[in-house]
Every structure is written in structure tokens, then in C-alpha cells.
Amino acid sequence: MIAYRTGAAALLALAMAGTTATAQVTDGPSCGEYKFYPGIVDIHHVDRGESGLSVGDERIGQFQLVDGDGNEVAWNHFRSVIIPSREPGTYRLVGNGTEIYPNGTINWSGSYLMADPTVNAPPPEKLVVSIVGGTGDFAGAGGKLTWFYDDQGKRTAAYEVICPK
Fold first, then answer.
1. Is the pLDDT of residue 155 over 60?
2. Residue 1 burial by CB count (10 A; 0-12/13-18/19+): exposed, middle or buried?
3. pLDDT, tens only, 54-79
4. Rounded to the nearest 10 degrees, how much is the dihedral formed by the CA atoms of 70, 76, 42, 61?
5. Which phi and psi (to 5°) does residue 115 adopt?
6. How far apart are CA 23 and CA 100, in angstroms?
7. Which SS3 state, helix, strand or coil, does residue 44 take?
8. The pLDDT of residue 27
9. pLDDT, tens only, 1-20
10. How far apart are CA 93 and CA 83, in angstroms?
11. Of the candidates 147, 145, 143, which has an alpha carbon nearest to the alpha carbon of residue 113?
């Protein structure tokens, strides 16, 4: 429990540092379609209940989002929990996250599969999660966020952000 509290405090400090860093960016994306890429990644596995990887364990973390030129655009902060999976050799996670941009936040929610949720990286598999609101320019937004590898093998986050009129 002490290790978790120490890890959680470190994660909170990193999250606050990420929030400060994104505030220095003057422009953010708007509603519509665009793509970003993972930059700095800080993801942790939190062992809950049974010892070892099991249902109820958490995957928490943050990662930087950058544009095609490597410029910081936002930070994604999330928490996912392992739930029972029907697919052999994989773990199903259900998660929620918030991406912090200078002009607002985008909130997402969904479930996804991973072969190894302990890796310090965005999920390697293709996944789609729902955009379920936000703040600022993204208040009331919907849409989807799709993670995949592009034709050059680069991990990509493709957004379809639909904002109310």
C-alpha cells in the first residue's frame, strides 16, 4: 500500500507538471478530424487483490501527445481497470481519460484489449474509444479516438471530434 501511495503521489506530481507544460502552448486543436502521436510515456501497473496480473488491477498513467513535427499538443491522463476477458491470451480493460489542451479538455471512455497491460506504452493493438465530452472548446463534444499504426509503422491517435453547434 505504501508503494502505491508513493507511486500515486509521483503520478499526481507528473500530471500537474504536464498540465503546466501544456498551458504554455498558445493554440490547440478545434473540433474536427486530426492526428497526434505519443511523446513522453509514463504508465504503471497497480497490483490489486490477487498477487500478479489479475482482474481488478489498474493501469494508470499519462502520456504526451505531439504533432507531426514533434511539438507538444496535450497530455493524456487515464486510469483503466482489468475486467474479465472472453478472448484467450488477452486482458480486457475499461478506462477513462482526460486530454488536457490549452483550449479545453477532451474526455474519453471505453474498453480495450491488451496482451500485457504492464507495459509502459500506449496499447499496441488497434483500439477505438468514445469521446464523451470535455471543457472549453470541447464542451459537450462527442466522437471517437482511434489508436493504430500508420503506413510507416508510427503509433497514431486519430480524432473525430464532433462539437455541438
1. yes
2. exposed
3. 999 999 999 999 999 999 999 999 99
4. -170
5. -75, -35
6. 9
7. strand
8. 75
9. 444 444 444 444 444 444 43
10. 6
11. 147
